[in-house]
Every structure is written in structure tokens, then in C-alpha cells.
Amino acid sequence: MGGGVGEDAVTRPGRRALRGAAGHLPGAAAGAFVQPQRRLRTSPRGYPLLPPIASAGPDQRKDAAVRIGLIAPAWIPIPPPAYGGIEHVVALLAGGLARAGHEVVLVAPPGSQVDGVRVVETTDELPPRIGLSWEEAMHLLPAMGEFEGCDVVIDHSGPFGAHLAAHAGPAAFHVVHCPLGLSERVVYEGLAAAAPELRFIAISEAQRRCAPALAFAGVCHNALDPSALPFSDVPGDHLVFLGRIAPGKGPGAAIEIARRLDMPLLIAAKCREDEEMEYFDRVVAPHVDDDRVRYLGELTGDEKFALLAGAAALVFPIDWEEPFGMVMIEAMACGTPVLATRRGAVPEVVLDGETGFVRDDVDGLVEAAASLGRIDRRRCRAHVEVRFSVEPFIRRYEEAIGTVHHAAVRHAAHRSLRPRPLRSLDAVDTTRGLVRR
Q1: Per-residue pLDDT at 168
Q2: Cβ(164)–Cβ(429) under 8 Å?
Q3: What is the pLDDT of residues 338-364, one digit of tens each?
Q4: Are β-strands 103-107 and 118-120 bridged in parallel, bridged antiparallel, or unpaired?
Q5: Average pLDDT over residues 413-426
Q6: Which of 271-280, 390-399, 421-430 has the lowest mean pLDDT?
Q7: Angle between the 326-333 and 377-387 helix axes, to the nearest 10 degrees?
Q8: pLDDT at residue 413 greater than cutoff 50
Q9: Dihedral sign computed on CA atoms, order 122, 126, 132, 134
Q10: Is-cis flag, bond preceding 79, omega within 30?
Q11: pLDDT, averaged across the chain
């Protein structure tokens, strides 16, 4: 490993290292947590199965129901066992749409299961690492036949999956989960030119503003179910960093903030890829002393939420245009304010001075942290309940789907009245991919 810090000097502790002698998470003092008032059913993986959405009656839902195909990325099961923000969103969307009365088919990696959803697994085992193009093709190509009869197909996997989705149903969407920098815009604008019927869904206004040339059907912020997360109105005495060990995520800046505030920092982050481990050894490991800076590894959902609920604040000093940032709403749902840099969607997610502090740099965050005691942790929770919970999340997707789906139905009806094209043109059309039905 690089940086002169070997495995003997600093090990990457497993999940058990998180617990103290009494088996409790840091900050989990007696009486500190307010648990959900109702007991949730859980999937075999232990993730909560959400209750039915009650924003419309059954007759209304039945009349508006459509058949929806969803494409998940190839790398992590749905829902994710640990790290996996996109996978969490796909699980929430699939289950929420099914509970809203829609028929949902989900193409997902092995080990996936969502209540009320038909899950199709096209491979026998998970890829060895994220980003292998051949494994992605093996995941996507056999899946297209599963969308026979779907009214809408929504892709979450990437440009390749989006291009295939554009030929798999009358209305196709691609949810853009990546930042839209120059190289990404070139790819997506090329995709839009090749599949002009494809519509995009942004996960933040900041992301959509980066690519005004793309045909966005709407903005659908990511979401979670606050009632499934613990809440604490008693702040701990430590800071937390969650996410991934990468320069843009800012673990080094988080360590600096904690040092300058003289507060302990607990780091719970994914560190599996070669570049992540190299960065860990070079930037993070020299500061890990199991006292002021502790590295906890990659946590399960329950462990992560308990850690957040017991913290004084989440430190989110990103140095890139993050299109959303799930961990911010997870922290606020637990009652924990966020210290974040003003990049990407941060100003849309955190209410500066109410649910945390948004500043331009580390100096600004250190200064603002002196006012953390003024933040009402119940206000943090309420903000997520109103803006980033399941019902508005599903409603925004239904609105985006409805607009394009109805237009596609009208277009298909109009085309059916036209004279049948020549056989040779039919043959040319089928080379574009699966024939639309």
C-alpha cells in the first residue's frame, strides 16, 4: 500500500469494531433515541418494507395504473446490503410504484427482492467490481425482452441501458445519477440525438441546470422513509463522515474540520476499489488513531442510521458537483444537522441555518460549527418528512411518467391511422432494436 502506511500500522476494521464493550453504537446513550412508533415488516435482508401509499383511493390508482419496467445498475443487489445510494432509490421507487397500484417489473442483480415487484435477474452472480462493461452488457441485453407490454421503461443504469430502454417501450426515461460535467454532457447529448424519444429525469435542479440541452421530463429528488429511521433529539459529542473514500467526497477535509473543532470523528465509508484504498492509505490512515479519528468500515443500514442519530453533525465537505447526496437526508431524518460545502445539490437539500450550515470552504464550516447548538433537530426531521419522503417522491415520478406516457399513447394512436409503410422500411426499423408495441 502507498503512503508508507502498511496493513500492520492501520487495518480497516470490520463492522464489529463499531460497537463498544456494551455492544452499543457510539452516542447510543439510554433514552437518546426515539424509535419509529410502528413496527415495520422487513425483507429477508432486514430492510423495511414500507406501508401502502395513501395519497389516492384504490379506484383512482387503478384508473391511473400503468405497467412500468425498471432497470437497476448491474453491480449491487436491490435493496443494497450496505453502500449503494442509487440502489436504495431504485428499491424505494419500485416498491412505492407497486404500492401505488402500478405493475412493476424490475431487472436487477442477483440477490434482489422488492415486495410486490416482479424481479428479473439476468446473471447468476454479481460482477467482481463496479464498472466492467462486459458484465454490464450481460446484465442489460437479456433484460430487454422482459419489458414486453410495458407502457413505460425507466433506466437507472447508465447511457447504455438508457439507449436500450429507448427501444423497449412506448415511453422511456433515464434517471441521471451522475454529475453532468463536460464529458458526461457530450455522452448524453449524443445519446439524446440517437434516441430523440428518450426523456431524462434529473435528481436535482442543480444537475438539470448543468445540461439545458437535454430533454428533462422533470426533477425527482431522491428520498427515503423517515419513519424507518431512528431519531435523536440529543446530540452526541462527535462528528460523522459517511460515504466513500474518494477525493471528491472530502474525507481529508472532514478530518481537518474535526481536528480544528477538537471533536472526535467517526468515518464509515466504502473502501473497496484500488483507487479508494490508495487514497485511504495516503490521506486517511495517517490520522486514524482509534481515539480522535476512527475508521469503522462499511456499515449496514441499521448501523449507519444509529451512528448518524448519535452524532453532533454529519460532515459533508464535498469538492465536486454532487447531483444529490443521500447521506444528507439520512442524517437530517435522524435529527442530525449537516455541515456541507456549497457544491452540487447541497443548497437544495440543506436549509442553511435551519437544518445545518452551507459554506464555501472548510474555514466557513469550522466557523459555522460553533452554532450547531442552535439547530433544532426536530426541524431537521420535519424537513425530510415534507420534502424528501416517499409520497412526494412517488408523486413526482408519477407526474413525469404521466406526461410522457400520455403523449406516447397519443402518438402511437396517431401512427396507427397512417398507411402501413413498405416492408423494406419495416425491416430497417427493426434494426433499431426491439420493436415498439
Answers
A1: 83
A2: no
A3: 999 999 999 999 999 999 999 999 999
A4: parallel
A5: 34
A6: 421-430
A7: 130
A8: no
A9: negative
A10: yes
A11: 83
* pLDDT tens digit sequence for 126-178: 999 888 899 999 999 998 899 989 999 999 999 999 999 998 878 999 999 99
| pLDDT for the residue 25 | 52
pLDDT category at 398 given cuts 50, 70, 90 is very high
C-alpha cell at 148: 414486453
CA 235 to chain centre: 26
C-alpha cell read off for 165 = 430502454
Q: Which of 289, 281, 214 lies closest to 252, judged by CA?
A: 281
Mapping DSSP onto H, E and C, the string for the chain reads CCCCCCCCCCCCCCHHHHCCCCCCCCCCCCCCEECCCCCCCECCCCCECCCCCCCCCHHHHHHHCCEEEEECCCCCCCCCCCCCHHHHHHHHHHHHHHHCCCEEEEECCCCCCCCCCEEECCCCCCCCCCCCHHHHHHHHHHHHHHHCCCCEEEECCCHHHHHHHCCCCCEEEEECCCCCCHHHHHHHHHHHHHCCCCEEEECCHHHHHCCCCCCEEEECCCCCCHHHCCEECCCCCCEEEEEECCHHHCHHHHHHHHHHHCCCEEEEEECCCHHHHHHHHHHHHHHCCCCCEEEEECCCHHHHHHHHHCCCEEEECCCCCCCCCHHHHHHHHCCCCEEEECCCCHHHHCCECCCEEEECCHHHHHHHHHHHHHCCHHHHHHHHHHHCCHHHHHHHHHHHHHHHHHHHHHHHHHHHCCCCCCHHHHHHHHCCCCCCC
- Give just the sign of the alpha carbon dihedral 41, 43, 46, 47: negative
Question: What backbone torsions phi and psi does residue 77 show, to the nearest 5 degrees?
Answer: -60, 160
Which triple of cell numbers denotes residue 331?
442524517
149 class by beta-carbon count within 10 Å (0-12 exposed, 13-18 middle, 19+ buried): exposed
Model's pTM, two decimal places?
0.79
